[in-house]
Design brief:
The chain is built from six helices and no strands. With about 170 residues, it is mainly α. The longest helix is centred in the C-terminal third of the chain and has 31 residues, at about 130-160.
Length: about 170
């Protein structure tokens, strides 16, 4: 299967799964359409991947932000990292797409610090400098995308198996 970073196929597969297993009228994502721009360099691929992950995890669904609340209580432990993944995507987009001046307030400073920490964890340094650095960051985004798809697939399967879907 293609990566959610560059293809709508994983989102469409989730929608098929929810229609087949739960109800033909349901969908998980609505019209997810990743931006496809031919990018030769990893820095451009990285920035585009952040945009597409945000489109998938936030813009194209109302379920993902509230997934934890829709999950049967006994199964919530399985999704403990899900919210962290979505929060990471939101942070990346906020830092890369919004005005985050060093002179701004606490909220922006906190997000900038989170971004530096994320890069430190992925690269071993706080600033991507080379094409290889951006490739590593892109690969980290691919892993986030794969984890999201895995978690959403598990969510659909758990809801499909739930005896009482009314409280979900």
């Amino acid at each position: 299967m293609s990566s959610i970073l560059i293809s709508a196929e994983p989102a469409e597969a989730l929608n098929r799964r929810i229609r087949e297993k739960i109800d033909p009228a349901l969908f998980l994502t609505c019209n997810y359409a990743p931006t496809a721009v031919p990018s030769l360099h990893w820095d451009a691929r990285f920035y585009l991947a952040v945009q597409n992950l945000y489109k998938f995890a936030v813009d194209s669904t109302c379920v993902t932000p509230a997934l934890y609340h829709f999950t049967p209580e006994a199964e919530r432990w399985r999704f403990s990292r899900f919210r962290e993944l979505v929060d990471t995507i939101k942070m990346l987009r906020a830092v890369l797409d919004h005005n985050n001046s060093q002179a701004n307030g606490f909220f922006e400073q906190h997000q900038l610090e989170e971004y530096r920490t994320w890069q430190q964890r992925e690269l071993g340094k706080i600033q991507a400098e080379t094409d290889q650095d951006f490739e590593r960051l892109y690969r980290a985004l691919e892993q986030i995308g794969e984890k999201l798809i895995t978690q959403l697939t598990l969510f659909v399967d758990l809801v499909a198996e739930a005896a009482d879907k009314a409280p979900l």
